[in-house]
Amino acid sequence: MRKRSSSNASRRSSTNRRRSENLRFDEFGFAILTKRKDQKLHHRCHDYSYPQLSSLRVKELCELLSYWNGASFICKSQIERFIRMGIPPSLRGRVWKCLLNTESLRESSDFNYQKCLSEVRGPLVDLGVSEYGILSAIATLSDTQNDLDLNHQQSSSCPDTCYSVDDITLFRQIALDLQRSFPTHRSLMGESPEAIEGQAKLFRVLIAYAKYNPQVGYSQGMSYIAAVLLMQLGEEEAFWALTALLDKPRYLAELFDLSLTKVQHQVKVFDQFLKHRKPKLSQHMESVGVLSVHFVMPWFLTLFTSLPCWDSVLAVWDHIFLHGLSAVFRIALTIIELLEPRLMELNDEGAVLPLLLRVPVDVAQYTVLVPALWATEVQDWELKCMNSLVMDETHHASKAEQCEKQKDTLSSQIRGKEEENVSAPSEGEKNTEKDTVAGAKSVLTRVMRLAQRYLLDPMGRQRAEEKISQTQAKPRQRSPAPGRVFRSRTSASLTQAQIRSRRQSQQKGRAQQPVGQGNSGDVTVTDTAGCGKSDRSEQTFKRAGTGPVGKVARHHSNHNIRVKSLRLLRNGKNSSSKTPASSSILPSSLRSSTLPPLSSIPSSTPPSSSPSQSDEQHKQQNTTRMAFIKFWNQNRRFLESGDSRSCRPDIRSVSQSGMSGSRR
After folding, report:
1. Cα angle 312-381-242, degrees, rounded to a multiple of 5
2. How far is CA 108 from CA 99, 111, 554, in A?
């Protein structure tokens, strides 16, 4: 097979050599084909119409390039003026080097071009392939690649070879693209010494860049760009120009990568941009069935080198080197605007797509395309908006895909666990029931503590008011003796007649207060036996001042009240079995953490000035105690059993009574 392929390659090379010897070339190096079949195949026009600069303008341009400074605004504005007028072909290489700033890139980089080429030649020698006969070695590279793919697991058995499968794949891909890159140009056509040297240069530049930037490597379209650079620059200069174009974000860094995802993204951006600028044309092309990917991606990857007029191609490249990536969008929009009348008349995909891929000569001429290009305006903010729009769409699309995947996985998991959930109740449900009961208990204990706070707050408020009144009265008058304070307070608050009337009303109430039980089984506790003594203790408590003697008397009176109330509760429990004591109402789990006995709650009413006010205060105290005990009786079943249905936390009566006492 290798002998046959080599013989076929030799025959083709001989025929191509004969053709190249008999062909004529134009001023840019393209062969002038006489056969119509070849003309249709290569689609190249040789009638150029680019302007010719005068000798004075050429001299000015040479002076500008001699003191060129890429950071200077004056230099950039001057070079833009010359690009509008038209760069002479003899000076285009120097202009491109200045715009790309290749010299500074070469000096700042540690990469050595010649050293890289010497490293690449080692694998080529091992493969038996020469860089000067790379086209004839395609069959050898293909066979070697197939052998390595078959014996990939046994590749470690050949440690002497210094090439890998990736190297052979790279060599073969570049060799295949060399045949497609400008097959009618003098430097790449046939088997002439110039063509062989041109193909070797192109191969070396592409291999060196793939080694220089392995993340980008080699992708389709790079061979066209490198070939155009080699037509204007030397070999190493073309390498650094290619590096500047593909690495700098201002130029083509957002177009080329290994997976071609960047160029696909830019095609989507241009699609949105076309819908924004030409909505009717975009809708018509979609109705026909032509998408932007079909024609925009070849334009972007080859930088419009498929245009038939080469002088227009070079002018387009001048524009790209001057303005960067935005110029690529401007050129594409200009071509579509020029073809818009013809595209709107066509209703067939087979007629629309060839018109876009092979732009007619009358549209691609320099005198038509370049003035339209300078008249077309594309703002950077437009491209940024379209880019953000595409990014949002892709982000939402990826999120939707992730949500669908999560839904599928969840549905599969739910279907697998449905039988287990139906057969036996889960432990989580039992835990939730326990949590609800415990939560209800905790809520009830909080409510009881809140009620306790409301019932005991009035005494604290009374003490605070007394202290505030004392502090306010101190700076106004001198502090008299303790006897005087006692006499003045008792004389001001209570007269002797009021004290006697109050004692009589208390004695009458002592004889009339029964111990009974409500209709609903609620317990009512009243003070019968020790009422007089408690009243006396209350009187002593009221008469006592804020001094140390008064505090000791108040402590003893509170202690006596608690002891006597406990005795009353015990006597009531022994006398009537239907009336449970207040301590037995609470369960054992809440006795220590809830309220003290009701008898231990001291009376918080201030001394009144009339017997009617004292009766009202006693009634309020009794109603407070009654409501509190009633609340405990209603929630007693829940506290003992933990059943949430028997819980009726009606705390309004307790809180209202406590609040009314505190207000008074």
Report:
1. 45
2. 17, 9, 95
- For residue 96, what are the contacts with CB-CB under 8 A and spacing of at least 6? 229, 232, 233, 241, 317, 318, 321
Site of tokens 């790309």 = 100
Residues in the chain: 664
The Cα-based distances of 617 to 497, 587, 608, 614, 623 in angstroms read: 19, 31, 9, 5, 10
Largest CA distance in the chain: 147
Torsion of CA 336, 341, 345, 350, to 10 degrees: -30
| Placement of tokens 């790379």 in the chain | 134
- What pLDDT is recorded for position 144? 75
3-class SS at 591?
A: coil
- 600-631 burial, b for 16+ CB within 10 Å, e for fewer? ebbbbbebbeebeebeebbebbbebbbbbbbb
Q: What is the distance, to the nearest Å, from the Cα of residue 74 to the centroid of all Cα atoms in its chain?
A: 43
**SS3 assignment, position 45:** strand
pTM of the model: 0.60
Sign of CA dihedral 472, 478, 483, 484: negative
3-class secondary structure, 523: strand
Amino acid found at 388: S
- DSSP, collapsed to helix, strand or coil, labels residue 459 as helix
- Cα(446)–Cα(451) distance, rounded to whole angstroms? 9
For the cut 60, the answer to whether the pLDDT of residue 534 exceeds it is no
HEC string of 238-301 equals HHHHHHHHHHCCCCCCCCCCCCCHHHHHHHHHHHHHHHHHCHHHHHHHHHHCCCHHHHHHHHHH
Which of 366, 364, 367, 343 minimizes the C-alpha distance to 355?
Answer: 343
Half-sphere exposure at residue 563, Cβ-oriented, CA atoms within 13 angstroms = 8
Q: Is 295 in contact with 353 (CB distance < 8 Å)?
A: yes
Dihedrals phi, psi of 30, to nearest 5 degrees: -95, 140
Residue 367 has pLDDT above 70, yes or no: yes
Instruction: Report the C-alpha gap between 86 and 370 in whole angstroms.
Output: 10
Q: Are 326 and 378 in contact (CB under 8 A)?
A: yes
Structure confidence by residue, pLDDT tens digits, 88-127? 999 999 999 999 999 999 999 999 999 999 999 888 888 8
Average pLDDT over residues 349-355: 94
SS3 content of the chain, % helix, strand, coil (to 5): 70, 0, 25
Please give the average per-residue pLDDT across 452-468, as a whole number.
Answer: 55
Token couple for 445: 């204990």
Classify strands 31-32 and 24-25 as parallel, antiparallel or unpaired.
Answer: antiparallel
Residue appearing with tokens 């341009």: 61
- Residue 285: the pLDDT is 95
User: CA torsion sign, 466 to 472 to 476 to 478?
Assistant: positive
**C-alpha gyration radius of the chain:** 51
CB 268 within 8 A of CB 227: no
Beta bridge partners, 185, equal 30
Rounded-to-integer distance, Cα 165 and Cα 616, Å: 105
Map residue 420 onto helix, strand or coil. Answer: helix
Nearest to 334 by CA among 309, 292, 311, 364: 364
- pLDDT for the residue numbered 184: 92
Burial of 523 (0-12, 13-18, 19+ CB in 10 A): buried
